[in-house]
């Protein structure tokens, strides 16, 4: 009798289908162990994978887990656990959990990280909290479309709709709009939308909100907060440090210890692109490893980081691009831990992160205080003349008429002045009261609810206002030939582009970056941002062209 015939005969034996060792009972036991193993692995892996995919922190551990899983001999692990725990269900259960966790972590990470960034940006722009972004946009609940407040829902797989960049409304009352990130049901309330040049991208992500207060101008546009606005910084803890979520770190440490010894057996990074997989090795002169360059989830910052990367590659260094990481509270701990070697930062906001109560306001004072506040193992390279910060803007014609170049010069103007900004700007330190206190200049105020966007610019060009609060790197500055008045007394917190580097960035690499910083003027940065908004090429293309124009390629 052949083995096949013997197996069929064994299955056909009635005694094997009843009793304590029956086929149905053993099948149920195996299915139960498998289900329990998957459940236990999912309880550990899914929160870790989702957290890593959302924050982009802990990716190195995910890579190690996935690589280790490929190298672990399944039968060898099961035999080892059986010898340690004895024969029974515990050994296979533990083995299955250990083998399932890496795959589930990697899958959850890849799924969340693969969500269309435009959808995530639009969700944040509409006021969703980070938890709401995860729950309602990034996690693919069965049958659910990824929806974004302030606009109709759309499925993750569908392309972003062609929303108009602006759609002014002039109604006298607020229209019904989705609530803020603290609620989930629609309500009627004034909703502020920032300008198209805000943090995540300059490109349209979702239709804007339409509610506004009487007497205010309202703009429908994306509402991503600019990453360097002091008011957007998280509140400091009693220790003076910005609160940082430790979910990813605690969860990944729980499984990292099990895989560190196995990670060395991995043949490579299963999640890396071919460029990343081949990028390990010598970084360049005086360096023993790849230079990891990060960027904020902000299109202008990504362009600067790409300029750094291409310049270093041209000098013979190997770089690893870790772009669009997120906000300051997400990426600065990674920089402090040594996971990122080089990052384009902004002097004032990063100083306030480390020293929340700093009295420094002017550019040189801020830079000196930042150099002193930088943690051990890090240093700031030369700050650039380029800035990305709030400022008072006037038209070129108005500046020429009154001879204006600084805020002090506003004292020369003999006609009434009106400042235009978001409604909350009226009570901010750089509003009318702050201008009066610091410079002794009286101005009126007109609320324009678009965060220094097109409506603010139009009101400025039309003469409805004479003064506007607009970011210095906003593309509209160059397009409309606006003039930023120099702040000589520190009314606005100075925010110059400044490279933050680890000690692993050698002197030769630092010299390359310092040359970039010196060449990047305020007008150059505005031009780079304007090209990103108008032509929408990749950051790599913009960086390559700029380096060529500056003879730095």
Topology:
Layout: H1 3-12, H2 23-55, H3 59-71, H4 74-85, H5 90-113, H6 117-125, H7 130-138, E1 176-177, E2 187-188, E3 217-218, H8 247-263, H9 274-277, E4 291-294, H10 299-314, E5 319-322, H11 328-336, E6 342-346, H12 347-354, H13 363-373, E7 378-380, E8 390-395, H14 396-402, E9 418-421, H15 432-439, E10 444-449, H16 454-462, E11 467-471, H17 475-479, E12 482-484, E13 497-502, H18 507-519, H19 522-534, H20 539-549
Helix pairs in contact: 2-5, 2-8, 3-5, 3-8, 4-5, 6-7, 10-18, 10-20, 12-13
Description:
It is a single chain. The protein is of the alpha/beta class. Among the domains are: 21-113, no CATH class; 272-387 and 494-549, Periplasmic binding protein-like II (D-Maltodextrin-Binding Protein, domain 2, 3-Layer(aba) Sandwich), CATH 3.40.190.10; 390-484, Osmoprotection protein (prox), domain 2 (D-Maltodextrin-Binding Protein, domain 2), CATH 3.40.190. The chain has helices spanning 3-12, 23-55, 59-71, 74-85, 90-113, 117-125, 130-138, 247-263, 274-277, 299-314, 328-336, 347-354, 363-373, 396-402, 432-439, 454-462, 475-479, 507-519, 522-534, 539-549, and strands at 176-177, 187-188, 217-218, 291-294, 319-322, 342-346, 378-380, 390-395, 418-421, 444-449, 467-471, 482-484, 497-502. The strands form 4 sheets. The chain has a 6-stranded mixed beta sheet. A 3-stranded antiparallel beta sheet has the order 6-13-7. The chain has a two-stranded antiparallel sheet with strand order 1-2. Helix 15 links the parallel strand 9 and strand 10 (444-449). Helix 3 crosses helix 5 and helix 12 (347-354) crosses helix 13. The longest helix has 33 residues, at 23-55. It is elongated. Mean pLDDT is 76; it is low at 143-225 and 231-282.
